[in-house]
Protein: 3-methyl-2-oxobutanoate hydroxymethyltransferase
Organism: Gelidibacter maritimus
Amino acid sequence: MSVAKKDYKRITVKTLVDMKTNGEKISMLTAYDFTMAKIVDGAGVDVILVGDSASNVMAGHETTLPITLDQMIYHAAGVVRAIDRSLVVVDLPFGSYQSDPKEALRSAIRIMKESGGHAVKLEGGKEVKESIKRILHAGIPVMGHLGLTPQSIYKFGTYTVRAKEDAEADKLKEDAMMLERIGCFAIVLEKIPAKLAQEVAESVSIPVIGIGAGNGVDGQVLVLHDMLGMTHEFHPRFLRRYMNLYEDMTNSISQYVSDVKNLDFPNDEEQY
């Protein structure tokens, strides 16, 4: 059964909990710069994630690991300046929170103060419990992330579906309940079986947002450049491309090159 979309003037962490309670699904997309964030916010997306996927999408790295805290702050600040409505969640990058709860807090404070972001997201369960608690105790909202955690790619060795075996599935459910218990306002579940994701969403009172986790969760997130078809090499099952901007942009740029070389641009009406 569909639920009517409410007109929220500004999305907060409380809004997301209310949306889950009311049965309204949560929309979430990534953005990494002012111009794209302005469009995403204007289109009515509830949550903008300034993801460490900027390492791949914006900088061309193979993994999310190389991006730095300074770079995340730079991207997030541009996004925050663009938005009027969306909640902006910023990824804590690899190495900024895993080993030391005090370092985790310092990283989160820098993101909040220097970018103006509204919340942070970090990957992992009980392994990073103390870091999450330290950040939460400072009054900074935290979104968890379980399942496929790209910052651990060298540990897993692959981007395949996680938690297919009972032991890993049980740990994921325990971690999700722990994240809720210590105060996280939401959880992202990435690339896990749909049945398991639905079980998790039904077992916690905070929103569960999926990427490759089926439709039984409380919302969905995709990488903006993937869903718009600006990237074209990436073809996971969970990705729906709403446009083919790679082809459209290539054709437009090629036409521009041709027009310049053929003296068709600028024409008489396009000059002073």
About this structure: The CA atoms of residues 69 and 93 lie 6 Å apart. The mean pLDDT is 94. The first strand starts at residue 26 and ends at 30. The chain has eleven helices and eight strands.
